Amino acid sequence: MAEAPASPDSRPHGLDIAAERIARVYAQAVIEAADKRGCRAAVVEEFQALADEILPKVPQVLVMFASPRVPLEQKDAMIDRIAAGRMQPTTAHALHVLARHGRLGIVAEVAAALRRLADELEGRRQATVTTAVPVPEGERPQLVAEVEAATGEKLAATFIVNPDLIGGLIVTVGDTIYDQSIATGLSRLGGNLQRRTIHEIQHGRDRLASA
Fold first, then answer.
1. What is the pLDDT of residues 178-188, one digit of tens each?
2. HSE toward the beta carbon, residue 135, CA cutoff 13 A
3. What is the per-residue burial (b if ≥16 Cβ within 10 Å, else e) of 101-139?
4. Is residue 52 part of a domain?
5. Are residues 161 and 85 in the same domain?
């Protein structure tokens, strides 16, 4: 359950679509290889960790991955260094395949495609949960479970913060948008989040008044 920024990606839209299409092809092959070895969940998580945790902390590695000027041998050595003792052989092999085809620069897109494919295979629909204030990581599973009960859907949720939302939450599943008024469960959740928003606003005012 990732948290996504409210603002759109700054990359050109055409490039995004092309990268996503290519990424899905590779992701399908990775899923099939992982399923043969019974390690789908681990491979998906390892790709996600690489894209979300490792590469953002060491951006020069992503630059090296994406550069056509860096020799394949150097990229392979870097993959081995990252994967050693941390990743499934399937994950490491997939990264080497991406390197050989000059596609390491879209590793984040492949990670996202892997997550979407895994969710589809496990019967989860993609959903976006928009709230006025951030939902703590520890509270998200329970919130998603209650939204699933209210909507009757099994969901893979992405959380987005939109400060312009007065309170509560909005859940988007495919082309359907639910707000907190459509079901008792969502209404209660929305009320809780609205009270949190009001509390944070009041706390901010009190801090300003005492400054």
1. 876 333 344 45
2. 30
3. eebbbbbbbbbbbbbbbbbeeeebbebebbbbbebeeee
4. yes
5. no
